[in-house]
Fold these 2 entries.
Entry 1:
Amino acid sequence: MRKNIVAGNWKMNKSFDEADDLVNGIMELLEKKELGKNTLMILCPPFPYLEMVSDYSNDSYFMVGAQNVNDNEKGAYTGEVSAEMLSSMDIEYCIVGHSERRAYYGETDAMIAKKVDQLLKHEIRPIVCCGEVLEEREAGKQFDVVKRQITDGLFHLSAEQFKELVIAYEPVWAIGTGKTATPEQAQEIHAFIRKTIADKYGKEVADEISILYGGSCKPSNAKELFANPDVDGGLIGGAALQAEDFVNIALAF
Ligand code: PGA
């Protein structure tokens, strides 16, 4: 059975002490209320805090992910972080192709494909983001956009490799805007993504992949979103910066 996953993308937020407080807050809450057996929590702090968060994760409340990785193996890429480095710190997951990276840092599907290759080579599971911008949604192009992102970014993988992925559908118009996709909109496109995967890799592979929703997901709407058969959890931004909100989202399955 595929996992329910709630991943917190902290983006470029919090000082070291604040990040430490957030992890402790999450752990305190999880001591009182246990997550569902099939629920996996992943925390994705900024690079400098990975080790601190990872040390806490030894208590196995959650797993740890990075927010980005370089698409090259190693070398003269000042300021960058490689998959090999993350792997040497036992980081288990990494977000790839977030819309903010596509929009502000020019990430293309081809670069995302190389990043995914690097991560899989070093046994880190990619959380691959896809999703349309507002104009594309208004023009009814969301299906074409998401299909292109998945095809160009991921369909070079073997079925065995593909099974290692987590997909996050994040409509760009819903990220950080307070405007959430309706449960029907989320289910419609998640089912489309699963079918796109099934057409290429078969139903068995498609049924194993967790497809997360991202975009203004919060405790008040998580239950409705996660109740859909093809919505297997969330990639959470703003609400992941608050221990109580984040844990309540993880308890919404
Ligand atoms: P948000 O961000 O929850 O703040 O909308 C989601 C994301 O960007 O992953």
Entry 2:
Amino acid sequence: MAVKLIVNGRKKLSGQVDIQGAKNSALPILSATLLTGGENILHCCPHISDINAAIRILRYLGSSAYMEGHTAVVRCDNIVHSEIPENLMREMRSSIVFLGAIIARTGRARLYFPGGCELGPRPIDLHLNALRKMGVAIDERHGCISCKVCDRLHGARISLPFPSVGATENIILAAVLAKGTTVISNAAREPEISDLCEYLNKCGARIYGAGESKIVIDGVEELNGCVHTIIPDRIVAATLMAAAAVTGSEITLNGVISSHIDSIIPMFEESGCKIFIDNGKLHMTCPDNLSSFKSVRTMPYPGFPTDAQAVMMAVACVAKGTTVFVENIFESRYRHVEELTRLGANIKVANKVAVVEGVNHLFGAKVTARELRGAASLVVTGLCAEGVTEIEGINFLERGYENLEVTLSELGADIKKV
Ligand code: UD1
């Protein structure tokens, strides 16, 4: 029988929790270990299925990779493969993050793509165009991408039409060991990009401007392993903040980098929550009745993150008044809406706009998660719905949240996995 979460709603939360390490930082950094000689010790790697899948991919490629508590220990001295088999690709949708590193390490790569994903079509044209400019010949057919470096990877001037996170990462991974200098204009500025560059620079790379729109990478001959601590997950922080807001609770989150959630905090404040951050501790006191927060527009960083849209919508469902969402990053990122309406939410969607009218009460029901952040929004909504909410499809939740039900139980929620 499928594993489910059973939430008995309307319990207040209290207490403090530590925020797990960021999935979207840990994955590209695990991929980057392929470029290094010697040992990598990566602290604060979350125990989630996407990380397990990344470790399986590293092992298949020939690395020694294992977890000791929350520390990943990786050595990539003997890489023997340059392709990722279809079954491993299917385990982790974001395995495209291995492309640039495998090419840089082995001079070739072959990856299989299962087509669209839970968020709609996920094109990789920006990744491939950039790699071509750096000297990679690419052949795409039957859902398989074969890449081969013609001579040696070389630096290039790459201007991205959109600040794609994945493309920026793949270009950086291909550029650090390339001959000459690479300049990325309109690069993604997400904190996870800065974390990847900080890791690579510790390994001996020469990357300048991470976190800004223009990143300059001077290729080096080789990289060593290093010790690095993954940054805290800003989306997990936003999820727990949403959980506190909908239950009118008072909680403390440890290990928050406040600048990473600057675009999220104003929505919670507008809804009536009081937030105080000091020295990595975020203290939040939430009223019993929330107000709507007018509008949420997802944008590349430092704008409001697409990954926090679904959990913020859970808050809007019970905030008095109207909140308008505009999803600018992905086409199909409202798949949670149908399930939220099963719980009594009042939401209308037209293309990339969703209009949420807050209701006084939500009522527990059986719902099914269809993607990672949508799953989190169902958990948050279940926490404030009257009665029992049964959530199926929690394999999606486990891709990105480490034992979310345990964290929430420790804070006082009535939630269990069955
Ligand atoms: C995106 C998010 C990232 C989030 C991740 C997982 C942004 C800018 N990026 O990263 O914060 O953690 O999803 O949910 O919010 N695109 C192309 N061609 C490409 C690459 C991308 O057209 O080659 C388009 C995509 O269709 C999409 C947009 O660019 O509309 C965002 O893509 P990108 O940042 O690359 O996505 P991810 O790296 O998956």
